[in-house]
C-alpha cells in the first residue's frame, strides 16, 4: 500500500473523533454558548465506554452510555452558565479539568488493557477502486458520523429548528420576545454537544485505538474546538477541517515510518502546527469571520 492509499484509507477514521466533537460544539456555539470543556468530556466518556466494552457490554451499549455520560457532564456546565450565569470560559475550563480527573480515576484499573474494535464495512464496487478504494471501507461509526454531518448541515440549512438555534445565537433577546424558550433551547444544545463529545471519546477508546491509557484523548477536544473556528461555524468547512487534520495525523506516521530526516517530535507536532497556521490565516480575514460569527457567543442571557 502506497503512502497516498494509506492516508486516504485511514483519513475518515482518524477524523471521526474530531468531527463528532466539533459537530456537537458547532450546535452549542450556534446557540450562543461556548463550551471549552470538550477535552474533559471526551476523556471521561472514553473511559466509561472502554469499561463497558471490556466488561462485555458491546460497542452499541458503550456508545449509548458514553453519550449519556458526556451529556450529563455537559449539563453540569449548562447549570453553571444558564442558571447561575457563570462565566462560560471559566466554567468550561473547570468542567474540562473535572472530566480529565474523573477519567483518570475510573480508568486507572484498566490501564494498558485492550479490547476488540469494530469490523470494517465496505461499499460494494467503490471499495475496489484504485487508490481511493480505501475511503469506502470504514467501520459503522464512521458511516454514521458522515450521516450526522449531513443531518446537521440540513438542519441548519432547511429546518425550523436550525433557524431557531441560529436566531437564539444571533439575538437571544429578540428570539425571547417572540416566544422562543432561549434557556431551554440552549440547555438542549449543550446536552447534544456533550453527547456528541461523549460518542467521540467512545470512538477514540473503543474503535480507533481500542485500549485505555490515561491521557489518550491527547488534545482532540481542543482541536475540535479549533475546527469550529476553522470552519467559520459552517458544517461543510468543519467536516473539511476534520478530514484535513486526520490526513495530517496519518501523514506524520507515514513520514516517521519512511525515515524522513526530521526529529520525531517535529513530525508529531505537524498537524497542530498546520492547524494553528490555518486558523491564523482564516482569522486574518475579518470580513469572513464577521459574516459567519455568532453574535452573542459567550454572552449570558438574562430575561
Describe this structure in words.
- The protein has helices spanning 3-30, 38-54, 59-83, 88-107, 140-158, 160-170, 172-177, 182-208, 220-230, 235-257, 264-284, 286-292; strands spanning 120-122, 137-139.
- The protein has 303 residues and is mainly alpha-helical.
- It has one domain: Orthogonal Bundle (ABC transporter involved in vitamin B12 uptake, BtuC), CATH 1.10.3470.
- It has a two-stranded antiparallel sheet with strand order 1-2.
- The radius of gyration is 19 Å and the shape is globular.
- The protein starts with a helix and ends in an 11-residue tail after the last helix.
- The relative contact order is 0.21.
- The mean pLDDT is 90.
Give the topology.
Layout: H1 3-30, H2 38-54, H3 59-83, H4 88-107, E1 120-122, E2 137-139, H5 140-158, H6 160-170, H7 172-177, H8 182-208, H9 220-230, H10 235-257, H11 264-284, H12 286-292
Helix pairs in contact: 1-5, 1-8, 1-9, 1-10, 2-3, 2-4, 2-8, 2-9, 3-4, 3-8, 5-6, 9-10, 9-11, 10-11
Amino acid at each position: 500500500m502506497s503512502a497516498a492509499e494509506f492516508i486516504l484509507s485511514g483519513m475518515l477514521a482518524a477524523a471521526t473523533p474530531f468531527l463528532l466533537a466539533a459537530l456537537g460544539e458547532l450546535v452549542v456555539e450556534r446557540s450562543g454558548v461556548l463550551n471549552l470543556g470538550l477535552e474533559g468530556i471526551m476523556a471521561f466518556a472514553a473511559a466509561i465506554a472502554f469499561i463497558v466494552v471490556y466488561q462485555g457490554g458491546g460497542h452499541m451499549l458503550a456508545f449509548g452510555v458514553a453519550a449519556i455520560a458526556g451529556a450529563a457532564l455537559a449539563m453540569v456546565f449548562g447549570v453553571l452558565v444558564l442558571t447561575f450565569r457563570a462565566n462560560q470560559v471559566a466554567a468550561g475550563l473547570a468542567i474540562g479539568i473535572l472530566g480529565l480527573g474523573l477519567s483518570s480515576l475510573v480508568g486507572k484499573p484498566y490501564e494498558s488493557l485492550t479490547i476488540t474494535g469494530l469490523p470494517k464495512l465496505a461499499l460494494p464496487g467503490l471499495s475496489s477502486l484504485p487508490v481511493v478504494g480505501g475511503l469506502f471501507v470504514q467501520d459503522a461509526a464512521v458511516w454514521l458520523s458522515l450521516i450526522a454531518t449531513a443531518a446537521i448541515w440540513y438542519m441548519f440549512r432547511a429546518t425550523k429548528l436550525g433557524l431557531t438555534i441560529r436566531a437564539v445565537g444571533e439575538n437571544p433577546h429578540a428570539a425571547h420576545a417572540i416566544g422562543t424558550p432561549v434557556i431551554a433551547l440552549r440547555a438542549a444544545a449543550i446536552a447534544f454537544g456533550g453527547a456528541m463529545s461523549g460518542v467521540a471519546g467512545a470512538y477514540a477508546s473503543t474503535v480507533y485505538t481500542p485500549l485505555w491509557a490515561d491521557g489518550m484523548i491527547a488534545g482532540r477536544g481542543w482541536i475540535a474546538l479549533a475546527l469550529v473556528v476553522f470552519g467559520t461555524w459552517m458544517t461543510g468547512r468543519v467536516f473539511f477541517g476534520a478530514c484535513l487534520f486526520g490526513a495530517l495525523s496519518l501523514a506524520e506516521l507515514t513520514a516517521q515510518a519512511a525515515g524522513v530526516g526530521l526529529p520525531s517530535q517535529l513530525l508529531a507536532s505537524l498537524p497542530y502546527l498546520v492547524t494553528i497556521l490555518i486558523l491564523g490565516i482564516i482569522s486574518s480575514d475579518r470580513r469572513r469571520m464577521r459574516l459567519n460569527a455568532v453574535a452573542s457567543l459567550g454572552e449570558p442571557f438574562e430575561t
